[in-house]
Amino acid sequence: MFDKVLIANRGEIALRIHRACREMGIQTVAVHSTADSDAMHVRLADESVCIGPPPARDSYLNIPAILAAATIAGADAIHPGYGFLSENARFAEAVEAHGFTFIGPTPEHIRMMGDKIIAKQTAAALGLPLVPGSPGPVETRDEVVALGERFGWPVLVKAVAGGGGRGMKVVSDAAAAAEAFSLARAEAKAAFGNDSVYVEKYLARPRHIEIQVLGDGKGAGIHLGERDCSLQRRHQKVLEEAPSPALNAEQRQRIGELAAAAVRKLKYRGAGTLEFLFQDGEFYFIEMNTRLQVEHPITEAVTGIDLVREQIRIANGAPLGMTQDDIVIQGHAIECRINAEHPETFVPCPGRVVDYHPPGGLGVRVDSGLYTGYVMPPYYDSMVAKLIVNGGTRNECLMRLRRSLEEFVIGGIDTTIPLHLRIVGEQSFIDGEYDIHWLEKLVGLKR
Questions:
Q1: Could you tell me how far CA 143 lies from the centroid of its own chain?
Q2: How do the domains of the chain map onto residue ranges?
Q3: Choice among 16, 264, 269, 291 that is catalytic
Q4: Which CATH number does 132-201 carry?
Q5: Would residue 254 show up in a list of annotated catalytic residues for this protein?
Q6: CATH architecture of 207-443
Q7: Which of 186, 282, 323, 364 is least surrounded by CB atoms within 10 angstroms?
């Protein structure tokens, strides 16, 4: 097993990785920007190395600085967490080239699934169902119109290298095609340095269902059930639950088996997530995330499996150590992403935390790097905590979630806790009757 792991990330996920390493007897190295010198994961790690000034491009995205830190500290492996460099194939290659182990998939799989067109083509070859769409990038407005006429309006123009809703435009009819096509390409170019776009049929009321998978890189692979991530604001997930209240046993088994089979055929290594839209009883593959997901704790809650521990074991060359028959989904779990934002305007609110009291009790977990007196810097993502609750049934879970949100105190900064309290009080959410547009309708936003 590794003696020392460098954590190439920050915030709650860096702390999460540190905890898994310590429980495995592995020493940790925290890297940090000057803005994160007082972060909790930096305080708790065995060693820490400052890798640059606050801007992420000069620190957490600075590949030479991270590799230098790993060399200085004598690390064996590097865990990228999520975000930042976690799905950067060039980083994964550099890590391996410098003699460290990358705790994640191969660079080839990262690159394959990072290109939306190649990912769709690969998914089709693996037998996964796809949203009807163009076989590759589209170059003109006329191609968009032709595809709209073929599949039926509306359609989506999407960035090939996209994510988070950037470079994505809904086209309602032929008259709107030229402007949407132009805007999508411009956004894609600005966000990703690649203006290639493709077209998909627009689904009016889908759920966002994702399947957690593990592979050993040698042909063994399993799934750990699904997560429903349909509660989104501007394509960013806000609340997730497992299992999905929308699926029946047959649908759950069908999509799980398809996902696990795909992992085995790919000889995929480590943790990954296959994401689907689900509407009218049908699944449509949209992408694969070749990393740990923000919402991984709800899968851990219903399976009892530590996903970060499994990532580390697999990266060290260990077999999966479990078969599909060993995976049993028990109870229900929900995660709320708590952001330092105004709960109505969603304006970020960095600043000093003057009071901090996380909820506790049976079935309650809080992943956060906050503490009283901590100053949240303005340079990074606004998520400051994840509240995860689980119970024997969805109703028990909902009651525990409400109680936990009411108990959660973060003073000194605005947070989205009031938004989550509003969500859990809505009857349609209580009944499990929502789709990816539900939350934006609730808060009065346009997608």
A1: 32
A2: 4-103, 132-201, 207-443
A3: 291
A4: 3.30.1490.20
A5: no
A6: 2-Layer Sandwich (3.30)
A7: 323
